Amino acid sequence: MPYTAFKKHETAADSLKDRVILVTGAGQGLGRSAALAFAQQGATVILAGRKQNKLEAVYDEMLATGLPEPLIFPLDLEKATEDDYKAMAEGIYQQLGRLDGILHNAAHFGRLGPLDINTSKEFERMFKVNVIAPFALTKACLPLLKMSEDASVVFVSSSAGHEAAAYWGAHGVSKKALEHLMQTWSLELQQFPQIRLNAVIPGAIQSPQRKKSHPGEVHAELPTADSLMEYYVYLMGPDSRNERGQVFGQ
Ligand SMILES: NC(=O)c1ccc[n+]([C@@H]2O[C@H](COP(=O)([O-])OP(=O)(O)OC[C@H]3O[C@@H](n4cnc5c(N)ncnc54)[C@H](OP(=O)(O)O)[C@@H]3O)[C@@H](O)[C@H]2O)c1
What we know:
Strand content: 5-15%
Helix content: 40-55%
Largest sheet: 8 strands, parallel
Number of helices: 8
Low-confidence stretches: none
CATH architecture: 3-Layer(aba) Sandwich
Mean pLDDT: 96
Order of helices and strands: EEHEHEHEHEHHEHHE
Distance between the termini: 14 Å
CATH class: Alpha Beta
Radius of gyration: 17 Å
Shape: globular
Bound molecules: NADP nicotinamide-adenine-dinucleotide phosphate
Oligomer: single chain
Strand order of the largest sheet: 1-8-7-6-5-2-3-4
CATH topology: Rossmann fold
């Protein structure tokens, strides 16, 4: 199934003002760029990720450039339990009182190779980070999202998940499952028009993960993460209110 092409979009300044948005994998790559872009549009961002030092660097950058003070939430999605996600949602409520968006950006990559050399352990790890974590985090935050007037949950997929691609193994399968999760939940939440779920396929973008997955590319010639941010801001903000259950890409 083809995905919906991104359209050029003019976003008004401060389009995310007064919103609280949680970004997973916010310490580097696309997640870092998204966290900064959301804050530049006025959002208070919750920086979630595995490595505290990387989250602190983003925190410092936000304060140094006069952006709204973010919250740091270190969490290893491979080890997190339902109780951890409940505690996270409770912490968000206690400290910020609301949640208006989640960008499920963090992903485990692993390695490329034929399925017959993949192990069940690799599949388990891939699914824990790429599918079960976004499910459990969304579930824990659903009561908060239902309190928002306009909540957006965005799942980050990949072209190798949208269409089967040889040698993308457990990673591709997990991203396909993630899209299916988004679409199923989107149908189930129709009676809550204030919450929308969509997915995004970034395409080839400079990032630490991209260097690993495509070592043969000239990395510097790829588009930067910042070049995508107008679409991420659009999907998180009020102008995409009527988009739901869709997979967007370039
Ligand atoms: N770049 C591309 O060309 C491209 C193409 C298609 C799809 N994507 C998708 O875009 C998203 C961002 O990718 P990227 O290229 O920016 O990758 P990246 O630079 O490797 O960033 C991935 C992020 O996920 C976090 N993460 C990984 N495992 C985690 C875990 N167990 N617990 C918590 N956080 C974890 C990492 O945190 P740490 O820094 O703490 O390790 C990192 O911040 C991913 O969903 C990816 O599949 C990217």
